[in-house]
Structure formats: C-alpha cells, structure tokens
C-alpha cells in the first residue's frame, strides 16, 4: 500500500515570496490533515478536510495560508506571502475515518520550509 | 494552559532500563489518547492507543490512562538504543480534533 506522498521535500524561499506544497493521501482515506511542526514542538493542526469539505481550519492563518482539496483526493497548501516564522516542516496526514477518533493518522515525510 | 503537556526532556536512560514518559491534558471530555514516535528528521508514527482507564500493554510498551487525573503515560521496558526518538502524546478532544503535545525526547544510552 502506497503511503502519503508529499512534495517538495525541501524548499528555501525569501520572506514575502510564495510557496505551495502538495499532498496525495493514502487511497481511500477520506480525511486529510495539514500540520505545521516547528523545530522542537509538536505538530499543530492547520486544516482538516473530510472528502473535499473543510472540517476545521481554526488555526490556519487565513491572511497568508490557503488550502484546497479538489475532488476529495490530493491537496495543496499555499503560503503567500511567507514570513520568517513560517519556517517549519509541513506534514500532511490522512486517516480512513472521519473525526480521527481512532487517532491513527498516517503521515507523509513532510515538506521542510526555510524562509530567509 | 496548553491542551496537551509533556516534559520536553531530554530523558536519558541506560539500555535495558524502563523509560517513563508522561502527559497531561486539559479537556476533561477527551475520550481517546495516543502515543506517536518520531525519529529525528522523520514523520510521526502511531505506536499505542488507549481509550479506557488502566493499562494497555503491547510488547515492551505499556500505556496508562487515568481520566480522573487527566494523565496519560507510556512505559518502555527493556529500553533499546533504537527507542531513542521523540515521543508525542496526542489527545482527541471533545471537538474531535487530535491535539499533540510538544513531545519528549528520549535517549537510550548503550
């Protein structure tokens, strides 16, 4: 079974530039998550999709971050314009069931963003 | 108060010892609790889940839950150097959101 695919793995940009990350979840997984993990911290949920609808985006900085999940499969997370504090690993995860009650999230390898 | 709190460590134990990792949470209505392991530079992977008070054992790992005290722990028996990683406590709160703690770094010395 293929895992969660993410790209790019690494990205270096200057502040005020834009960046986009892509994620393809495990086939059949209805729920998709984007987490931000700053060095030395635990993952912080940015947005959760159930199929192609948003379940939770309460911690997404909507003035600069956007995310979409067209057709309920893969997803894109965009940051525009980037700030220094956006330097982090952006983790995409998927789960078979809604609400993550099983807690079993499958994570991709992450996209490491460095903002200079 | 953070929703899920862990000691950041690092926690250092000798090989073969028991490693004890602790976690507290603030949402009393939380129903499900998880431990993820994250090796350096890698993504988190689920190692244990626990839903009811008491102990749950899986090989060398034991998860313990005390809902009255809002406390979750993970014990690793016969610790191995390969257990060296950051252990993330995650709690599914009443809103159905999975909240992670900041993680405890464990170092097992040969």
User: Care to count the β-strands of chain B?
Assistant: 11
Distance linking N and C termini of chain A: 37 Å
pLDDT averaged residue by residue of chain B: 94
- Rough shape of chain B? globular
The largest contact between protein chains, plus residue counts on each side, is: A-B, 23 and 25 residues
Written as H for each helix and E for each strand, in order along the chain, the element string of chain A is EEEEEEEEEEE
Strand count, sense and barrel status of the largest sheet of chain A are:
7 strands, mixed
Q: What is the residue-averaged pLDDT of chain A?
A: 92
Question: How large is the radius of gyration of chain A?
Answer: 13 Å
Structural class of chain B: mainly beta
Instruction: Encode the helix/strand succession of chain B as letters.
Output: EEEEEEEEEEE
Q: DSSP helix count of chain B?
A: 0
- Number of helical regions of chain A: 0
Which stretches of chain B are poorly predicted, pLDDT < 50 over at least 5 residues? none
* First and last CA, distance of chain B: 37 Å
Helix content of chain B: under 10%
How would you describe this protein?
The complex is a heterodimer of chains A (116) and B (110). With 116 residues, chain A is an all-beta fold. Helices cover 0% and strands 47% of the residues of chain A. The model of chain A has no long low-confidence stretch (mean pLDDT 92). In chain B, strands 2, 4, 5, 9, 10 and 11 form a six-stranded mixed beta sheet that branches. A five-stranded antiparallel beta sheet of chain B has the order 1-3-8-7-6, with no helix packed on it. Chain A binds chain B through residues 33, 35, 40-45, 48, 55-56, 91, 99-105, 107-110, and chain B through 4, 6, 8, 31-34, 42-46, 49, 88, 90, 92, 95-103.
């Amino acid at each position: 079974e293929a895992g969660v695919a993410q790209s790019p793995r690494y990205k270096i940009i200057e502040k005020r530039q834009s960046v986009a990350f892509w994620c393809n979840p495990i086939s059949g997984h209805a729920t998709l998550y984007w987490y931000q993990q700053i060095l030395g911290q635990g993952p912080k949920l940015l947005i959760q999709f159930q199929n192609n609808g948003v379940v939770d985006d309460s911690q997404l900085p909507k003035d600069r971050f956007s995310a979409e999940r067209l057709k309920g499969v893969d997803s894109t997370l965009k940051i525009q314009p980037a700030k220094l504090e956006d330097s982090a690993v952006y983790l995409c995860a998927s789960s078979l069931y809604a609400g993550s009650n099983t807690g079993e999230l499958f994570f991709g390898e992450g996209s490491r963003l460095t903002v200079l | 108060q953070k929703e899920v709190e862990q000691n950041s460590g690092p926690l250092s134990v000798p090989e073969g010892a028991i490693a004890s990792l602790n976690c507290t949470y603030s949402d009393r209505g939380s129903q499900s609790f998880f431990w993820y392991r994250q090796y350096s530079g890698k993504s988190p992977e689920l190692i244990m889940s626990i839903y009811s008070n008491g102990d749950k054992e899986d090989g060398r790992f034991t998860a313990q839950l005390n809902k009255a005290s809002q406390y979750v722990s993970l014990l690793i028996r016969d610790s191995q150097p390969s257990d060296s990683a950051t252990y993330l406590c995650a709690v599914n709160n009443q809103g159905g959101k999975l909240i992670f703690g900041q993680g405890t770094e464990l170092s097992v010395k040969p």
